[in-house]
TrEMBL record:
InterPro entries: Beta-lactam-related (IPR001466), Beta-lactam/transpept-like (IPR012338), Diverse_Enzym_Activities (IPR050789). Keywords: Hydrolase. This is Class C beta-lactamase-related serine hydrolase. Residues 17-315 form the Beta-lactamase-related domain. The keyword Hydrolase applies.
Amino acid sequence: MTAALTNAPGSALADTLDQKLRAGFKNGELPGLHGAVIDLGKRRLAEIYFPGKDERWGSPIGERQHGPDTLHDLRSVTKSVVGLLYGIALAEGKVPAPSEPLYAQFPDYPDLMAEPGRDRILVAHALSMQMGLEWNEDLPYSDPRNSEIGMERASDRYRYVLEQPIREAPGQSWIYSGGAVALLGRLIEIGTGMSLDAYARHTLFEPLGISHFEWVRGADGTPSAASGLRLTLPDLAKIGHLVAQDGRYDGKQVVPKAWIEESVTPRADVTEGTRYGYLWYIAGRPKAPLAIAVGNGGQRLTVQPEHDFVVAAFVGRYNDPLSWQTSLKVTLDYAAPAAKALLSRQQP
């Protein structure tokens, strides 16, 4: 994948799908949609933006006229980006392998390391959200009982995560946890000697030509590994192409191919038809899987490596339990049929 795209906005192909998306938005089929980018290989099938109320990591910032240069919360799509960073740092020998015990990497908490059962939790269990610790993010993120909010308000976010009661043996089931990603972000910072955002800029964003971003920091000054990244929509699409191309972008291997393969290898069941790898959701046919990253409010990045098919969408339905419907509808009802039609015309 190169930075250059054919069928940029203004072409007949892009205009057709743009018009369909505009009509869908006008008809109320895509509530809260802030923007969508749909690519098939080097062809941009659509790029569209809508005005709407927005937030910056939970703080309202009012009505925004969204566009290609507008920074937008990724929320939990941030987790999947951290997963890519972990793979880069692992290849550099700066973070522990997935097979290493997790608590041993945090020697500042010897009391926790000594508790029975915690020695069985591996780095891999954090990467796949199977640590077996109590964690609840089903509550609204305005509720202090939400575990991520509790972590952000704690005097020591890492102790907060590591001291959570053991619910079950590690590896038994998937327990969604922003705390797991906070620990992984900390391992990256310890191993590289850089803040998470600085390391991301140097190893991931600069190779992709991403210069405009923000990584929101918590009250303790730490970049939120679970949900704090803000990117533009075209730049999020670049990350999708990176994954589709086995970690390569513009002829350069940015993330090791082996790590991409590890990341999209199913390791835990989430729902029927959806599994989880290393900080990426996995769906679709086993021989042609989809790699998916999702975030509060309806943020979504869908990647089908088989055809280098990438759909990135921003939505402003924060804390709405049905927010996922808007970006999923963009993918299933608009993007997928357009890509399928184009691919069928290309077949001999």
